[in-house]
Amino acid sequence: MSPADETKVTIPSLQAMKERGEKSVCVVAWDYQMARIADRVGVEIVSVGDTVGVNLWGQPHPLEITFDEVLVVAKAARRGVQRALLSCDFPFGPLQRGAASAVDAAIRLVKEAGVDLVKLDGAADFPDAVEAVTRAGIPVFAQFGITPQTALKYGIEYSAASAAQVPDEMLDELVAEARRLESAGAVALNFTNSGPVVGPAVVDAVAIPVLGGFGGGPWLDGRIRMATAAIGYNAANVDRDVDTYANVARVVFDALAECAEDIRGGRQIRGGIKVPRN
What's CA 21's distance to the chain center, in Å? Predict the structure, then answer.
């Protein structure tokens, strides 16, 4: 499939998918090549997640990444995306400083990286910022639930967040948060760790699409998955069998090991410039 042959995804078309009961797909990608591949697959959203620092760069916590680092990643992904909507996370900081800071950050992401919408983690605590960014003409993908930036509020360490689930007794509170975000102008919600009880209730409570990453399920309007997680691109996977769509870590390990053997054996490197022997 070529993205040039497909109709560009828009916010209204994403909304129409929810109304028709069709699931939308969001893939998290952090470089040009992966973003381009995801776009060719035909996903609706390519998301530049702020957890790139943890998942690709070895940072210990997602709060460590800076805005300028996220901006570089967003620019790379933008070059690879033609059909899908390109979303980019705010790192921790611009939203927490208030509405004016959020608008400034959103404008930079649009002007300098060309993103189509911005994702605000912990947005339910900042409806004024969601409204201000929306008023500036920039679509907001609002994230709430047990997220990388809000896990500590729930008494959960970031490392344990992927195995968490929002308590069922928080149903009314989270439905209220979702409605508050919709009223503030969010065009879509990222409900993280929704669970099979609260998740469907939120989906039914709002008219905008509700997607989710870890802790989500088929009860949502769509799913979010890191490309690296889907393909098993994690160094630890070299030594284990994983329930992913591929084990790229092991493929890379085997390929590099074979390349090293050819170099040490004085043989031609595959794919390299052919060097004649003397």
Answer: 22
